[in-house]
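[SOLVED] Need 3D model of a two-part complex

Original post:
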Amino acid sequence: MRKNKGRSRFIVLCVAPAVILFFIFMILPTLNVFRMSLYERGAYSPTETFVGMANFQALLRDTQFIRAMQNTILMVVIVTIITFALALIFASILTHEKIRGTNLFRVIFYIPNILSVVVISGIFSAIYKPENGMLNSILSLFRGETVTMLWKDAPLVVPSIIIAMIWQAIGYYMVMYMASMASVPGSLYESAGLDGAGRITQFFQITIPLIWTNIRTTLTFFIISTINMAFLFVKAMTSGGPNGASEVALSYMYGQKDAGLYGYSMAIGVVIFLFSFLLSAMVSKATKREPLEF
Amino acid sequence: MELKEKQTSTKVYKAFIYVALIALAVTIVVPVAWVFMASIKQNSEFYGNPWALPLGFYWQNFVDAWNTAKMGEYMLNSVIVTILALLILLAVALPAAYCLSRFHFRGRRFFHVAFMAGLFINVNYIVVPIFLMLRDGDTFLKNVFGFSFLLNNLVVLAIVYAATALPFTIYLLSGYFATLPHDFEEAAYIDGAGYGRTMLHIIFPMAQPSIITIILFNFLSFWNEYIISMTLMHSATGGKTLPVGLLNLMQAQQSAAQYGTMYAGLVMVMLPTLILYICVQKKLIQGMTVGGLKG
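Solution:
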C-alpha cells in the first residue's frame, strides 16, 4: 500500500509539469482559436462580444482572403510535387549508383534545412535583387544585356517564394528517403536487373512501392508543414507584398492580428486549421495502399 | 558492338547524374558562400559586379553589426533563450516521457493520445491566442500588483518554446524508452533504489543518444525561430532574439543601404548553426531517421 502511494506520487510529479505546460500553451490556445473566432474583440480591451458566424461570413466576401487561400494552395501543391519528385530521384541516385563523394553531396544538400528562414530570405534577397543580384547577373550573361527582372514583383513573386521553399525542403526529405531506400534489399534490384528491368522501371516498380508507407507519412506531414513554411517565408521575404500579391493564409491571419481584428484573425485560423486537416486526411486516404513486405 | 554501345550509354547516364548532382550542390553552396564573401565587402563594392571578389577583409561590417545594429545584444538574448528553453524542455519532457512509456496508470493512454495530437498543432496557428493570453495576464497583473512581466520576457519566451516542443520531444523519447527491457528497473528496485533514483541514474544515462538528438533538433528550431519571438518580444527597446534582429536589419537596410552590415548580421545568425552542423552532421542525420518526421 505504501509502495503504491509512492508510485502514484512519483507518476504525478513526473507527468504533471509536462501536462500543465502542454495544457496552458497548446491546448488552451487551440481551444481559444475556435472560441475567439465566434467573438469580436476590442483592439486594446479584453471585452468580447459574441457575433456568431459573422466573422466567417465576412471571410467569404473578402477577396484578399480568397487570394491568400489560392496562393496557399498553389504553393502547397507545387512545392510538394517538385520537392518530392526531386528528393526521391536524388535519393535513389545517391543510394543505388556508385557515386564518388556521396557523403559530401548528402552533407551539402542538408545545409538549407539548418538555416533560419530569415537567413534564407536574406540569401534569396541577394539572389533576386533587381540591380546586380546573382540571378539577374547570370541571366545578363546569356542575354548579352543587363537584365533587371523584378523577381519580387507581382507576377513573379509567388514562383520566387516557391523556389526558395523547394531549395530549403529538398535536402531534408532526400536524406530521409535515402535512409529508407537503403533498407530495401539489394538482391531485389539484382534480380530485376537480370530480368531486364532498367533503372526507371526499377525506380517505379521496386523503390517507390517498397518505401510507400514512408512516403505516405511524410507527405501528410509535409502538407501541414508547407502551409506553415509558406507563412514563414512570406513573412520574412515579402510581408505579403507587393499589395498582397504574395499573401498566404497564415500571413493574412497574422496581418489581421496586427490590425487588431482578433476575432476575424482567429476565424481565418479556424479555416486554415480545418483546411489543413481535411487536405492531409484526403491525401492520406488517396495514397492508401496495401503495405508491401520485403 | 552492342556491349560498347551499352557502355557509352552508361557513361552518358553517369555524366548526366554527376551534372545534376553538382548543379544542385552548386545552387546550395554558392549563395551561402556568396553571403560570407559579401560580409567582408565595403559598401561601395556592392554597386558593381556581384561576383567580384572582395577587395580586402573589411571587418568593420561585423563591428557595426555587433554594436550599432545591436546584434551582439541580440545574440546574448538568443543564447539565453535557447539554453533556458532546452533546460526546461529536458527537465519536463524526460520524466513525463519515461512515465508515459514505462508505467501503467489510469489516464496514461489519454495523455499519450493528447501529446500525439499535439504533433499536429503548429505554433503558428496558436501564436495569436498565446500573445493575447499573456497580454491579458499582464493587464491583470498591472491592475492588481502594479507591475507586469509576461510579455517581453526572455524566460517566458523560453517556457513557450519548451512547451510547444513537448509533443515532438515526448513522442521521440517515449518511442525510445518503450524499447528498453523492464529488467533494468526490476534490478534497481531489488537493490533498493527508489523510483526517482532508478529514473535518474539507470534510465536517463541509457537514453543519452536520444537526448543528444533532441538537443540538436530543438537547438536548431529554437535558435532559428522568429514568429513567436517577434510576437512575444514586441517592445521596441531591445529584448529581441537574433533572427528578429536580423529581420529588422534587413528591413532597415532597404532604406539605408548598409549592405555590408546586413550580410555580416546574416553570417552571425547562420555561423553557429553551420559550425554545429559540421561537428555533428552524422548524428543529426542519424537522429532524423529515428524521429522520422518534424513539425
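Edit: The mean pLDDT of chain A is 87.
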